[in-house]
Amino acid sequence: MSIDSPLTIVAGLTATVLATVLLVLVWDRRRIIGRTAVVAAVLLSMTGTAALQLNSLVEAYPSWSSLFDHSAGRNDGDNPPVQPPPAANGSRPGRGRTETVTVAGVASHLTMPMIVYLPAAYDTPAGRRLKFPVIEAFHGYPGTPEAWVRRLDIVSHLDREIAAGRMAPTVVLLPYQTTEHLLDTECTNITGGPQAETYLTHDVRQWAIDHLRVRADQPGWGLIGYSAGGFCAMNLALKHPDLYAAGASLSGDSEPGIKVGDGSEKTTNSITWRLTHRPPPPVALYVAWSKDENAARLGSQRVARLAKAPLVVTTATVPHGGHSLGVWQQMEAPAFDWLSANLSRPETALHPSSKPSVS
Amino acid sequence: MSLTGRAIILLSAALTILVAAATVFLWRRGGRLRPPIRVAGLLTVEVLVVLTAGLIVNRSERFYPSWQALAASHSTENAAKPPVGRLDGVLASSNVVRWSPPEESGWRLAAPPVLIVSADYARHAGRSYPVIVVLTSADRVASIRAEAASITDALIVVAVPTRGTTAADLTTLPARLAQDARAADTGWAIVADTAQTTLARRWHNLVPARFRLVTNALATAADRLPPSLNAPVRLHP
Going along chain B, which residue ranges are E strands? Predict the structure, then answer.
């Protein structure tokens, strides 16, 4: 039974009810120690169930083992390198697939797992001659890449948009953004801590170029993220216009909301500061928010207001939904369609067999 | 009652206290019904405690700022209307046409531009195509047309500017092309001869949202543009 399955929540609720019944049954038959033990069981099951339900929404701890592992980014194991699916039963016509890989960051010294979405075209004979555009997708805080897969159903969204011809076949990378479950990096290089920005912009990118048939040029790379990941997408696109052509923010703020350690949350890691103190870079941003929330709405509106050419900002809103999975599910398909229209097409590779590990 | 207001938190907290007090009051009463009364009271208190805590956190973080937000549906995304080009009928029978819309005289070109569409243009009705505008000299038009024949998945406009052509003159060209053919909103490129580079850069700077790059090679432009795409899903609040 997985940590985020409905059955687990039902089991927690059942345990709470049973503990409560037990408390009533033992109350008149036990003294202080017995009563205290059962009260503790009631409180533990009640708070535990509430925590499990909350965790199932954000996927901060995507597995039972991750509960006891302080390193959010530890890979349990033995993830093989990306290989084509077995010809007989691994491929699903018209549907992409995901692989979990380990990215050992040479520049950041971070080693973390990453989920990779490969479009259906990747495994076709024609696709083996192509280098695909790439989107890095960032999760919120707290959270893990699993939230994209399990809560936002990213694979189905991508399959649907690509099959409908609204999006080009694109490789999507879902990296971890932190080494510890409850350490919010906002994709920055934390002073004395994880060098998340370096990992995401250098190590992840280099891993993809080395191991996958993907474009290596700036017009072929984009970013997307929700909540804290939305800030990441905007901030990294603006900081690295030589690497990324476009970024999409779903309910992202204009400020990181953490202390980076070098004061850069007020300068180079503040989008507001960057847009008012640095020349605007030639990138495109898609900034989406729900009209009935405050922080992300105000931050997003600030970004749109301060943007100047050659920075191009496209805005989109939903009327209500707050800061929630329901809002991001609505925004996903439009944002991916927009990104695809702002990234280069799959490139015909001159040497189709240059990546033997994936072809 | 607002989902993030103080009133609902106070109500929930008051109910919690009330039910807790009632449970304590009834703890030694109720006769044979004592156990179920105790269980019901405790479970109700537990639910109300979690509810009150959730309301407090929600008020602070504004995850669900309204009742509507709690019930947010997936109804706000819709596929945009498929594009239709005024010249689609003409382009179905010939993928190279001399393009001479009413605005053409204002562009101050040496001659009406040549509009070239990919071979699959007519087959993929409903798709929008990225655009390559080639600014060149009259003597290179034939070779550009030959090269353009090998470019797939794009609309190509071959124009010969005169000495009097300015970037401002050309500002109406993108909108006109978007009416006449299924041109994408963004992801355009300008391919310019050396003599036209200044004009190309000025035009690019005038409409940065439309143009993606300026280059001197048709193949480079074709490689770096987005593909043709069907009408996207958009948010319609």
Answer: 77-79, 96-98, 114-117, 127-128, 131-135, 155-159, 188-192, 211-215, 229-230, 233-235
- pLDDT for the residue numbered B77: 66
Closest partner residue to B208 (CB to CB) among A17, A217, A312 is A312
Rg for chain B, CA atoms, rounded: 33
Using CB atoms and an 8 Å cut-off, which of residues 1-30 of chain A contact chain B?
A: 16-17, 20-21, 23-25, 27
> pLDDT truncated to tens, each residue of chain B (237 aa)?
888 899 999 999 999 999 999 999 998 887 888 899 999 999 999 999 999 999 998 888 778 888 888 776 656 667 777 788 899 999 888 889 999 999 999 999 999 999 999 888 989 988 999 999 999 999 999 999 999 988 889 999 999 999 999 999 999 999 999 999 999 988 899 999 999 999 999 999 888 888 888 999 999 999 999 999 999 999 875
> How near does any CA of chain A get to the CA of B30, in Å?
13
| A87 assigned to some structural domain | no
Contact A345, B153 (CB under 8 A): yes
Q: On the CB side of A324, how many CA atoms lie within 13 Å of its CA?
A: 25
Q: For the segment A257-312, what is each residue's pLDDT rounded down to a tens digit? A: 999 999 999 999 999 999 999 999 999 999 999 998 888 999 999 999 999 989 99
Q: Are residues A205 and A331 in the same domain?
A: yes
Q: Do A46 and B50 touch (CB under 8 A)?
A: yes
CATH code linked to domain B88-229: 3.40.50.1820
Please report where in the chains the tokens 């009209």 appear, as a residue.
A291
What's this model's pTM, rounded to 2 decimal places?
Answer: 0.89
Q: Within this chain, do residues A31 and A122 fall inside the same structural domain, yes or no?
A: no
Q: Do A128 and A265 have their domain in common?
A: yes
Domain interval for residue A233? 97-348
Q: Is A291 on the interface with B (CB under 8 A)?
A: yes
Are A317 and B233 a contacting pair at CB < 8 A? no
- The pLDDT > 70 percentage for chain B reads 97
Residue with tokens 């990992």: A199
The answer on A127 and A47 residing in a single domain is no
Mutate to test the interface with A, among B224, B228, B230 (most CBs of A within 10 A): B224
Residue A313, domain member (yes or no): yes
How far apart (Å, rounded) are the C-alpha atoms in residues A195 and A142?
18
Edge-to-edge, what's the strand order for the sheet holding B131-135? Answer: B96-98, B114-117, B155-159, B131-135, B188-192, B211-215
Q: Which residue of A has its CA nearest to B212?
A: A342
The span from the CA of A251 to the CA of A248, in Å, is 10
Total domains in chain A come to 2
Q: Nearest Cβ partner of B72 from A46, A317, A326?
A: A326
